[in-house]
Amino acid sequence: MSDKIIVTGGAGYIGSHTVVELVQAGYEPIIIDNFANAEKSAIHGIQQIVGKEIKLYEGDCNDYSFVRDMLKKEGAIAGIIHFAAYKAVGESVRKPLQYYKNNIGSLLVLLDLMLEFKISKLVFSSSCTVYGQPDELPVTELTPKKPAESPYGNTKQISEEIIEDVVKSPLPIKGIALRYFNPIGAHPSAKIGELPLGVPNNLVPYVTQTASGKLEKITIFGDDYNTIDGTCIRDYIHVVDLARAHVSAIQYLESKNETSLFDLFNVGTGQGNSVLEVIKTFEEVTGLKLNYTIGPRRPGDVEKVYADVSKANRLLHWKTIFTLADALKDAWRWQQTLG
Ligand code: UDP
Fold it and tell me: Sign of the CA dihedral 23, 25, 27, 30?
C-alpha cells in the first residue's frame, strides 16, 4: 500500500505542522501549495525538523490539469488532506465570489480526480464556525449547525455537505471533516509557525506581535460578555495537537473497510479560556507585561464556544498533549525567531 499523502496547503500554518507529523508517523507527504498565504521558508523549516526533503508541487488546487499531471506522475496515493483555502472572514464578506470559487472549486477538482485516480480517503479542514453561537456548551458533533455568518463560514458548511453527498453515493470515497476550534502556538522547535499576512486578525499572533514591540498594544474586543471575566471564551488548541489529529484521521480511514464512511470530529481541547486568561497565561509563561486595553465588541464575535472532544478521543484514539501554557510558550518562541 502507498504511504503517499497529498497535503494541499501543506506550506500553510496547520498544513506545515501536519506534514511534520505525517513524516514522523511513517507517511510520505507530498505538498501542493500556491503560496497565496504561505512562505517558502515553511518548506525549509519542515525539512529541518524532519531531516529530509519533502516533495513540493507549486500550483493551484483549482487548476485541474496541474493537479491531474501531478497525480499522474506520483502513482498510487493513500489519501488527501485538503487544507488549501482562503480563510479571512472579513475579506470573504467583501469578496464572496473569490471565496466560493477558490474554496468550493478546489474541493470539486480534488473529488473528481480522486475518482479518476482511485484515491479513496479525504480529510477536510472544517471549522467550529459551523456551530455559530451554540445554544448549549460544550458543542458535540450533533449540536445543530447555525446559518453561516460569512461566505468563508458558508464554504466550510457547503464543503462538508458536498463531501457527505459524495460519500453517501455509490462513489468509492470515504471522508472525514475535522472541525477545528482555535489553533494557536507553533512547533516546539520554532522552525515553523504561523505567518500572518499584514496585521493579524487572530488573538495569539496579535499578542505575540505586541509583546515583541511590532504592534503597540492589543485591544480586547469587549469585556461585557456573560462570561467569568466578561471577555469571550474560545477553545485554544496547540497546532501540533491539531496536526496530530489529521494523522489519526487518516489512520482511522485506513482501518475502516466500508466504502461510504463519512464522519465529523470536533478538534479542540475541550476547555474554554477567556481572552483575559490567554493574556494572563502569556504574561506568566513569558514573564512579560502585555500592553492591552479594553475596546468595543468586534461585530460577529460569538460569546462562548468550546468543544466536546470525546468522539475524537474515542474513535480516532487521539487526545491533546499540550496545554494552553505550552502553546503560548511555543507561540512566543516562534515570534522571537521572526523579530
Ligand atoms: N480578540 C481580541 N483582540 C484581538 C483579536 C482577537 O480581543 O486583537 C478576541 C476575539 O474577540 C475573540 C478571541 O480573541 O473573542 C479569539 O479571536 P480570534 O480572531 O483569534 O478567533 P475567532 O474569533 O475566530 O474565534
Answer: negative
Note the pLDDT tens digit of each residue in 198-240: 899 999 999 999 999 999 999 999 999 999 999 999 999 999 9
Which tens digits make up the pLDDT trace of 166-182?
A: 999 999 999 999 999 99
Amino acid identity of residue 123, one-letter, is: V
Expressed in angstroms and rounded, the spacing between residue 221 Cα and the centre of ligand 1 is: 7
pLDDT score, position 258: 84
The whole-angstrom separation of Cα 258 and Cα 253 is 9
User: How many distinct helices (H) and strands (E) make up the chain?
Assistant: 12, 13
Evaluate if pTM is beyond 0.90. Answer: yes
Closest residue by Cα to atom 12, ligand 1, is: 232
Q: Which residues pair with 98 in a beta bridge?
A: none
Residue 226's CB is within 10 A of a number of other CB atoms, namely: 8
Residue 200 CB contacts under 8 Å (≥ 6 apart), including other chains: 206, 209
Grid coordinates representing 227 are: 462570561
Q: Considering 99, 152, 225, 306, which one is annotated as catalytic?
A: 152
Any atom of ligand 1 within 6 Å of the Cβ of 292: no
